[in-house]
Each structure stands twice: as C-alpha cells, then as structure tokens.
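Hi support team,

I've been running sequence recovery on a batch of backbones for a student project. Most finish fine, but this one hangs at about 90% for roughly twenty minutes before it completes. I'm not sure whether the input is malformed or the queue is just slow. I've pasted the structure tokens below so you can try to reproduce it. Let me know if you need the job ID as well.

Thanks,
M.K.
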C-alpha cells in the first residue's frame, strides 16, 4: 500500500469517526483506534496518540458550533474538566507502563459499554428542582429548542464529578474521549437533558485529551504521518455532525453504530487475549 492510499483511507475513516463522535458525544477515538490497529496494524500506543489528537480536533470542531447555538453548558463543562484533566494525566502515565494486550482488552470492554450506552433511553426531561450545590456553583442553565428556551437544573453534582474522574483516567489510558462515561455522568446521574449532555461532553473531550496528549508526545508516541490525516478527517466530520445534530433523529445511526462497535470490540478483546498486539 502506498503512502497516498494509506492517507486517503485514513482520511475517510477519520471523517466518519468525527461524524459519529459528534452525533453521539463519544469522541472519534472509538473508531480511529480500531481502524489503525486492526486494519493497518499500527502499534496501539501510536494509535492512541493519534486518537488523542483526533479527540481534540473533534471537540474543537463540534464544540464551537454547539457553543454558538447556546446548547453547551460552558460553566458545567469547565467545572467537570477539573476532574477529567487530573484523571487523564494519571491514565496517560499508567498507559506507558501497561502491556499493549491489556490495553486492547480494556479498550474492547469500554467499546461494549459505549455501545450499550448509546442504546439506552435518553433523558430528555428538564428538572425543575435541583441540588443546593448546583445552585451554589451556578451550574443550572437553559438551552434553545424549536418550542423556545427550556430551563433545567442539576442533581447529584458530587457523583457526576466522581464519574468524570474515572472518565478522565480511561481517556488517558485508552486514548478515547470516554464520552459514554461523561454522558452517563451528566445524563443519568445529574439528570441533564440529552442534547445538553452530548454537546457539553464534546466541549470537554478536547481539554481532557490535550492533558493526556502531552504525556504521549513526551514519550514519542505521536507520528505526524498518522496524526495529520486523522486530525483533518475528524475535524471535517465533527463540523458535519454538529450541523446534522439539530436536524436529524440519530436513532438509526445509533443502531448501526452499536452493531459495528460490538463487532470491533469482540475483535479487539480476541486479539488482546491471543497477544496479537
């Protein structure tokens, strides 16, 4: 395979990763890493380094549009980023000393969890009563809908913060945005409407990935030949996804995504158990 062919295939794959990551709030790494490791046989640590840069691009592309539309809760995102950033640095340091097969198995398990999370019923209700801590931190907000502005309040801020720390560790360890855990923390635990949790997750993923990427860069796990087409593709997909989110029902996309991710997860776990990484 020539370098040009490799770059074009990687560019297309990264575009689809950015599109899916933007629509689901999961981040592009869940597609980029299996593409690099299973299809192109790239060392998983180099794949993680590229995926972290892809997550930054995905977050930057989608988040800018969502912030402009007023859906993202910026104050909440900045607060929860304290937890994810600390966790991301810890995870990145641990990853350097963790066997690649162990990382592959754990990655497959997280993919299965991500697939299950995309199929669950989404929280669309806006709470009218929240916690005192949410009021004290001024985390309650509103977002625009076709029927007008909808106000919402938050609950279980402490539990959400704790889940975000775990999400940060997994982000640094596996090179994915850990969007499934972030959406779980905001949607299920803190009872934030789904569109707000998805867009706020996209806003946060870039900062979390940037903290991890520094460690991978220092260790030499960033290859420009891999990272450049990945970043370009993911950025384009993220912009497209941010435009489509307000116009389409992504239910069909979620089902297709879950089937594909389940297959990829099984392949990652199988190869990890058989020491093929």
């Amino acid at each position: 395979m020539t370098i040009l062919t490799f770059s074009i295939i990687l560019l297309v794959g990264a575009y689809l990763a950015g599109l899916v990551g933007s629509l689901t709030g999961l981040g592009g790494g869940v597609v980029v890493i299996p593409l690099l490791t299973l299809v192109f046989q790239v060392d998983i640590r180099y794949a993680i380094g590229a995926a972290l840069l892809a997550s930054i691009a995905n977050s930057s592309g989608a988040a800018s549009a969502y912030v402009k539309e007023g859906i993202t809760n910026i104050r909440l995102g900045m607060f929860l980023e304290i937890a994810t950033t600390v966790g991301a640095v810890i995870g990145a340091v641990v990853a350097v000393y963790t066997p690649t097969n162990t990382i592959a198995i754990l990655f497959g398990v997280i993919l299965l969890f991500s697939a299950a999370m995309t199929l669950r019923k989404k929280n669309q209700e806006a709470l009218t009563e929240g916690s005192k801590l949410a009021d004290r931190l001024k985390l309650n907000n509103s977002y625009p809908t076709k029927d007008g502005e909808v106000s919402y309040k938050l609950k279980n801020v402490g539990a959400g913060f704790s889940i975000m720390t775990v999400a940060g560790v997994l982000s640094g360890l596996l090179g994915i945005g850990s969007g499934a855990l972030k959406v779980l923390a905001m949607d299920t635990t803190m009872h934030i409407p789904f569109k707000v949790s998805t867009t706020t997750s996209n806003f946060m993923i870039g900062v979390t990935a940037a903290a991890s990427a520094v460690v991978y860069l220092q260790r030499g796990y960033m290859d420009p030949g891999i990272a450049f087409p990945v970043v370009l593709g993911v950025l384009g997909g993220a912009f497209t996804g941010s435009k489509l989110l307000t116009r389409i029902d992504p239910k069909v996309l979620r089902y297709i995504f879950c089937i594909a991710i389940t297959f990829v997860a099984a392949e990652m776990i199988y190869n990890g158990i058989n020491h093929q990484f």
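--
Follow-up from support: It reproduced on our side and the slowdown came from queue contention, not your input. Residues 7-273 form one domain. No action needed from you.
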